[in-house]
Amino acid sequence: MNETLPVFSDPSLARYSHDAMKTTFRIFVSGGDRSRVDSAVSEAFQKLEDLESLLSRYVPGSDISRINAMKAGESLFLSNDCDQCLRLAIEASAATSGRFDPCIGILIDAVKLPTGGGGEVRGIVSLDPCRPMVSCIEEGRIFDLGAIGKGYALECMASILSEHGIEKALLTSGASTILAMGEMDWPIDITHSGGLRRLMLRQAALGASGSSQQGAHIVDPRDGSPARHFQSVWVVHPSASFADAFSTACFVMPPEEIREFTKSLPPGCQVISDPDF
To answer: What are the pLDDT digits (tens) for 1-26?
Structure first.
């Protein structure tokens, strides 16, 4: 995707970084006792490591990899984080009429193959309505939380920072998702073909999806076709999880669908595309 960059010149900001989920996560903190901030950030990054071990389908033994390996008739108890992230993913899928789908792993793999063909979403699983448990009705479903997991991770990390009394911070997951905490405006530049655009992010998240960094890896879950309408799409939303998921969904929507979808978003939300829709 085109670059999405926080822009700071304040040397008093505490800055931290950690590699996980195939990208670099960063935390910028304004104010606070440095030793307390260091401790909070260390705990947040440990939570990030834990989440990767649960949510990545590429980590053997993760909750998601175990779900993907389930046979018909099997059930599996999940960690609370995996259960929560899956339920958010299902909510995002419903909100976007299936344009976002957490079960799209097999289609992503098909697009990334040299031949670029094959792949069909299949299989049926069921989440228990009261317990963190999933049951396999028909095997073959391939979950991939890559389009919501980073946003969810940022929310979990922000919660830890808040518990430690940190009020003003910005958290980023590469160029994918940015989450602003507290009563502070954080300047974010997005690189648009029509010219650099600056957003002021406050108590909100920015999700970005595009093809410039990873190629045609985002596909329409409904027919498996690569996205073709935009170079990049950004979504501003109160939830980092939904900003992450909705930017992916909007990336495969034609302009008329985006216009209709934006009507369902809470006040203050925004969808930006390149080229403009």
So the answer is: 445 767 677 778 999 999 999 999 99
